[in-house]
């Protein structure tokens, strides 16, 4: 049984982490819920027990905690994760603050288990997680030469405020969170623009893919787009492989793999879609076909719930992997 803290417990990802802790029967001896000062004092019911959310302060990092699930943004993580770590806890952090630190593992458990050289483990960006699952299968079988992403990302990627902006648009009101309406629109703009014209979301996808797949010089490019969908991100992946293969062989590989679900039957209009993937735990793949404009190149379409596998579920799966590892070394 473990002492577990959730930081950012009232947020969209934090509250989903709590649901998953319960659903997946994580052995919890003591649960502590933290938030910003703004949400502190709120009551949360977990397993029929009432918890009052506390403001996170430095003295409260003493716990003791075995595991800390952090989903409270980069600044909070930079300040508090090392304090939890010093006290002996393992921190699983959902922000982008630590992801590219060479000492920190950036983990999708079925692709690259954590090294634990530091006791902070980074949870990747949502659109990256659902993309590296199919790419890792292709990398193992054929090797990767180049990856080009185009994303179609739901508003829940921006948390409650993204969902509210879509609802505002539906009511004919002006947006508050996004620079333009998201209702009846698409925004080729997620996170801030860099000097070179790429957005930070695009840079995250590029850098995180290379790190997770341990292919530091893999050519990767991305265009990230926000669409008026509430749940589940879609990513069109164009991938060039080192070795020759066929669409049929790739479909067979995906079909046999437990970490992706193949939905690919164009004759019956079957392919992954956000309306089906939202609320589900899987990474769905389909529209597998050869790109005839380049040698050894294929299109793969992937859809997954960005709050589940893209964030909270991946974090809980990291926790489960750590707990299993610990139990096995007893
Ligand atoms: C979005 N992918 O859809 C972002 C949200 O680095 O974890 C997640 C940001 C991150 O807006």
Which features does this protein show?
330 residues; alpha/beta; seven-stranded parallel sheet; 15 strands; 31% helix; diaminopimelate biosynthesis; aspartate-semialdehyde dehydrogenase activity; methionine biosynthesis
Describe the structure in your own words:
The protein is of the alpha/beta class. Helices cover 31% and strands 23% of the residues. The protein contains 8 helices and 15 strands. The relative contact order is 0.15. It binds (2R)-2-aminohexanedioic acid (11C). The site of (2R)-2-aminohexanedioic acid has 10 residues, from α3 and α5.
Helix content: 25-40%
**Alpha carbon gyration radius:** 20 Å
Oligomer: single chain
- Enumerate the strands of the largest sheet in spatial order, edge to edge or round the barrel: 5-2-1-6-7-9-8
The low-confidence runs, each spanning 5 or more residues with pLDDT under 50, are none
Largest sheet: 7 strands, parallel
Shape: globular
Order of helices and strands: EHEEEEEHEEEHEHHEEHEHEEH
GO molecular function: aspartate-semialdehyde dehydrogenase activity
InterPro entries: Asp_semialdehyde_DH, Asp_semialdehyde_DH_beta, NAD(P)-bd_dom_sf, Semialdehyde_DH_NAD-bd, Semialdhyde_DH_dimer_dom
EC number: 1.2.1.11
Subunit structure: Homodimer.
